[in-house]
Amino acid sequence: MNTLNHTRPKIGLLYLDHVLRFFNRSNFKGWPDKIEQVTYHWGNDKDRFVAEVKAKKIEVLIGNIPATAYETFRDIARELPGVRFLPSLDSQFSNKSKENVTYFCEKYDLPIPRTRIFYEVEQALNFLTHTEYPKIVKRSYGPSNYGGYFVHKVDSAEEALRLFSEKRYYPAYIQDFVPMKADIRVMLVGHQPVCAFWRRPPEGEWLTNTSQGGSMDYQAVPELVLELAVKASKAANAEYWACDIAVSMDDDYTILECATAFAAFPYIRDWIGQYLMWLLAPQDFRKPYFAHRNWEELGKIDSSLLRTMRYIGFGQPDYSTDTGEYAPADEQYRLLETRYKQEEEWPSEAWNFQGNIPAKVIAVDKPVAVHSGVSLKEIMEEADTGIEQQGEVDISAVFKTVDVTVETKVLSEEELLAFFLQVKSVGKTLATDIVTTLGASETLRVLNHQPEILMNFRNLKHKKLAIIMDGWREYCAKEQCRYEEGVE
Predict the structure, then answer these.
(1) Domain ATP-grasp: where (predicted)?
(2) Listed range (11-20, 361-370, 410-419, 472-481) with the worst mean pLDDT
(3) Nearest to residue 137, comparing CAs of 161, 121, 110?
């Protein structure tokens, strides 16, 4: 990065086709120089992308990288040694997969539920047929659980084997089920908590996701939870970070998720932008100040307003003008400058287990018998690995991110199923899996606003997603729906 004469580095925003944008230029209000944009188009786009970054003389590339492209960008980063990635590829290690979260937490002695990861089908089968239940099975790759749709509680070997025969998740990622009364998400900027809230499951349920009926509130988040999140953020050397922390019935705390990729209101992305501008050009920007536990007051505002509020600021405590008493700034969680490291902590040669250990494709010649008498004809026939699809795929010409708003009616599951079935290359099994897993309202939301989530379904990669979205635009036009180009 160019630091001569205190000059500011040239910033570029990293985007990927059909991936929801985390930042745009407005999050960096006040940056006096032009902010470039570069877009990765998937497939065999690496060389073109690298050439564009070099041609634009970008020195700092800002943006999250989705799980399926993480290893590709490990290679890209090595081809761009003079470019600083924010967040760093090491900070984004946990974004890629649940297994990476496990390795990260184990290295830094962070509490997590007891977890087993299997790359060999035989070992997974042996474990599942002899372990105690209940267990939690998760789809390993990806930064989050996407509303809980890819997290499963299994109560017996029969359920576990049936699940893996249907989903074919690879690797097999299995955790002990820990009954919990809630979980807490903590968002941090510069290792300082800037937002935290409880997510509580509906009565009698175990998933806390609001899309599954869970509730949320911002009050009285325990200090020990904040301290654990800060510890994880510092271990990751993350410029910004989020932790999901489970609260057991006995008030024990364990990390469920942690990543730089998370859902955040625009004003929080503004705060991250303020921090990054100060980090990159401290001679031009003041260190931002975020009031401790600000979320307890901001959380009282209706969420529909919070989604539109921008550029929220805080005055720093000082001597009182009326009594002369000192109101000290809360120094318990200070905003810290993250250090820039060029060396790799998590090199792919050592830690890309999905890529370095081939997924075994096994067609079982005879039924697999377990102690309860369950039989499966095929195990892991087409392993669901989540690795970026390679080959001559150019979808940039056919896929265009749009914000589609259905005005005429709310489609039913049957109507959505009919839509998918008319899309070329989408079969009945995949169509049914999408609609029954997400439900009607969530399927509509995903199609309209977050289509990349569909790639979490088996055999649905970038090319097929582009075909689906083309079909969705045509469907909306035919049904007299309205769609608009996505805007910053």
Answers:
(1) 102-285
(2) 361-370
(3) 161
| Phi and psi torsions of 52, nearest 5° | -65, -40
Interior/surface letters 461-477, b for 16+ CB within 10 angstroms, e for the rest: bbbbbbbbbbbbeebbe
For 94-113, how does the pLDDT look when each residue is reduced to its tens digit (9 = 90+)?
Answer: 999 999 999 999 999 999 99
DSSP letters, 301-333, are S-HHHHTT------PPP-B-TTT--B-----TT
Task: Identify the CA nearest to 353 among candidates 68, 164, 100, 95.
Answer: 100
If you classify domain 402-485 with CATH, what class do you get? mainly alpha
Q: What is the DSSP letter of 343?
A: S
Domain range annotation of the chain: 4-89, 90-313+347-387, 402-485
From first CA to last CA, the distance across the chain in angstroms is 27
Q: Please, what is the Cα angle at 154 between 151 and 158, to 5 degrees?
A: 135
CA distances from 313 to 27, 94, 248, 271, 398 (A): 14, 30, 35, 9, 41
CA distance 199 to 183: 5
Distance of alpha carbon 111 from alpha carbon 130, whole angstroms: 25
Predicted local confidence at residue 13, as pLDDT: 98
> Burial level of 47, CB count in 10 A (0-12/13-18/19+)?
exposed
pLDDT at 469: 86
Q: What is the pLDDT of residue 385?
A: 56
Euclidean distance between CA atoms 283 and 7, whole angstroms: 9
379 — pLDDT class (breaks 50, 70, 90) = very low
Q: What phi and psi, each to the nearest 5 degrees, are found at residue 265?
A: -60, 155
User: Rounded to the nearest 10 degrees, what angle do helices 157-167 and 121-130 cross at?
Assistant: 150
CB 460 within 8 A of CB 395: no
Average pLDDT of the chain is 82
Who has greater pLDDT, 210 or 311? 311
| Strand, coil or helix: 242 | strand
Domain 4-89 bears CATH identifier 3.30.420: no
Is there a contact between 468 and 451 (Cβ–Cβ < 8 Å)? yes
Coil/strand/helix, residue 65: coil
Q: Say which CATH class 90-313+347-387 falls into.
A: alpha beta
Q: State the chain's maximal CA–CA distance in angstroms.
A: 84
In what order do the strands lie in the sheet containing 60-62? 36-40, 11-16, 60-62, 84-86
244: Cα separation from own chain's centroid: 12
**Angle formed at CA 335 by CA 330 and CA 339, multiple of 5 degrees:** 155
> pLDDT for 124-173, tens place per residue?
999 999 999 999 999 888 644 455 668 899 999 999 998 888 877 888 99
Distance CA 78, CA 12 (A): 17
